[in-house]
Amino acid sequence: MLKFLVFLVLCNTDALSFLIDYPSTKMLTINETNSYFGYSILLQKGNRGVAIIGAPRKRHGSEVRGSVFKCDLLYLRCSEYSRIMKEKGIYPRNRTGDFLGSVLDGDEITGGKFFTCAPKFIIDYRGDYYLNGRCFYVTSSSVTNEVARTVLPLNSERQISSAPNLYYDAAFGESGFDIAYIKDKNVLLTGAPGKSQWNGALVRTSLVSYTSKVFSNEREWDPDSFFGYAVAWGKFIINSPTIWYVSGSPRATELKGKVVFYEENRRLKNTYLLGEQYGSYFGASLLVIHKSQGGDDILVGAPLYPGDSWDEGCVYYYKNRNDGTFYPPIKLSNKKSASRFGTTLAKTGDMDLDGFTDCAIAAPYEDDGVGAVYIYFGTHTGFVNDQFLRIGPSDFATFYPKTVIKGFGVGISNGNDINNDKHNDLAIGAYQSGQVFYFTTKQISAVRMNMTSSMKILYTSTTNFSVTYCIMFTFRNGDRNKMLSFFTRVILDDDRILNRQNITKITTTKAHDVHCATQEVLLKKDHLNVDPLIIPYGYRLDQSQDQLTEDTFTVPVSYECGEDNICQTNLTIKSLGTSVSKVVFGINNEAKVNVEVSNFGESAYQTKLYLKVLPEVSLINLRECDFENGSYVCLVARVLNGKVKKSFLFDLANLTPNYKEIPIHFKVESIGNDADLSDNELQVTIPVNFQNNPYLDSRSLPEKVFLNKSEEILKITHTFLVGNQGPSPLNLNLTILVPQVNVSGIDILEIKSTDGTVNGIESDCKFSKKEVLNATNIVKLQVENDTKVLSCVESLQNCVSIVCKGAYVPKSNKNAVFTLKLTLHIKPTVKFLDNVNKLVLMSSGLFSNDTTQFYTTASTYLYTVPNIIISMPLWIYLVSVIVGVILLMLLIFTLYKCNFFKRTYKEMIENEQTPENMEQREILQEEEEQEM
């Protein structure tokens, strides 16, 4: 049966919602619902396409080891790869097992190699159980009983490291948590998020020598950051063969998440991508959009991003500037609570054959755990939120009415052309219910319909002419054999037409063939309307319920300006002023420009103004304007004789602070020849002013501390904050000065790092040595004689200057924060203090704003405890002992006199409480009362 999707030439992108051929959906499953069948998927094409599917909780007897299956997509039969693991791991009770099959990657053709891992594989190492993990290399996917080669990424690493502190190194590495196969390099990248106390690592393994190199977070020790949770690779510099490795750390930077880039030589790049929300798991999934010339883009998943509710999830799309840096991200999301959008990212290739790479994003817990997958279609600007196709189980539920589907989307294959129609197909797993669904795509057809006229220009004397309309279509995959039938309609409805009618036809044609028809048009005599004659026409597939795709054909009308029919105009334009004399950045978001257009010649038909503005400036009143080829085209008058005034309102909200003025260029044109072109253009320039109110603050951690002379070092953090309370962005120009003193060849103060962020984006700072401080408003600290000061205003002390600039601090709630991490060497510090007990350590921050300079210091007060030994005479000890003995004897004597040591006294008291004694006491008491 012929299945295709018509993509209309008028850019009807809604048609892409029918890209998937749901009636042809196929389901794969095995007889074990709790096996997580479909957790990972690899599609391979060939004479008979196959799906390699991971089931990481597949049971082998009583053991949950996991497994991998090869499934025939024609007959829907699955067979297990029986010899992937040659050895058995350790299986403690209530553990999930090896998790074999949790990841898959490899060749895209049947019989090619593939890789899978068991990240929870446990080994017995000298009597201890260690969660090393391991991966496996199957050289031919066609052979299900092949003994796979074992890949041990962490084999050369120590299980436990003892220097400088004892910690787990490879012991709980979980290598194979994620993998990425680089075919051209014959290299396998594996993630090991548990290595080095769960600091994590990315491991590159050569598939030739089986040697591995470990990439770790070298600049900072950050346990539990899970570096290597997701791994990827790409060529991020255009026209460069250099490959960068990418790793996600979803718990780094105080649980905000981080993505790190490395070069092949293990050099850590300065490019970082930082999460914005605590606990969002930014970096839990990665997808690089590879481009033929390099300059790859990247998508980063944050599946626990709360959004407006909780666990909505989102994906950050970073478009490359072609130099390895990225534009601010576009946030893609489905805005559905608990869906965890972005859990899985997959490359689908160009599914709709429009020349742009597409991608798949999973939300596996959408709709109460059912799940959904979103296909985002690439455009010339990358990915946007309104260009996607949602695939959910409800779309094909009628074909599997009694099937319960859960966790749809955790496993997504890469796109692959299984049925050889040049459109990539897709497989999606529902791991919680144990199914995989295989989807094919429809052929996409591009249809073109146009119209021509027997007369290029109509005159008032024209009584008839003819139009010819043609239709043709092509399949994007190049198919030339199929035929389609179209319903076409031409509407003759202008007041100047005598034979007004709707002309409809059914046309059947073959791909790439052009089918035409001609229609005569009769006109009224002496029609004086000089507006162009417009003929609407349209088409749709025959028997389709879709609306027609419509266009119009325009026949111009002669303006009869002289014998040559060319109007001799004389247009001019001048400025009538602007609504503001200057724009204050952050306050004025709009500006109006008033102009006057005049014509001193023959009638100027179709008089238009062409407006050229900055890319960040847009025209608001677009009612009579269109945007064409980078300029706004505005109709001034259909026929202009005399003068007309026009006002144009511009939106300045997206203006960037690097502009000092706003140029606006006007050019007026009309049909005909202008007698003088020198006055047809106008340049209006509006100056841009900045009003900001910067402030500078600092703090020290710790602020006060006693030096422990038994320790070697003391870690100190000085933080400087630059804020802006004004409406305009603030140009950052911060200098941090750190004093330097050397005692016996050792620097007292060592700068470990300087980390800066401006509006959430990392900022680099440059170091330089300075001996002279040119800051006129720094006040020297007045201290007592028992105090020394280590600062950049003291004489005979050098300073290190750290300069941070080049960024803009926006207004209000966004700040630039720079953290200076220092190490104080205690022994030389004590030597420097000599007999002084107090040291004030000051780092200085200078911020320059045009002619104004702001100053602050971060001060740490250090105290030493003098060693005082007080001797006590021996006689004091003797007297104390004697007095204590006398007091003890007095206590014993007192207890004796109180009969404390006589046990019979207790019995005597109890005997007095007998009933007889109590009765006698009551009688005596009554007699005493009577006598009274």
TrEMBL record:
Every Integrin alpha second immunoglobulin-like domain range: 561-688
Region (Disordered): 912-932
UniProt repeat feature FG-GAP, residue ranges: 265-327, 328-385
Signal peptide residue numbers: 1-17
UniProt-annotated location(s): Membrane
Protein family per UniProt: Belongs to the integrin alpha chain family.
Protein's name according to its UniProt entry: Integrin alpha second immunoglobulin-like domain-containing protein
Native source species: Zophobas morio
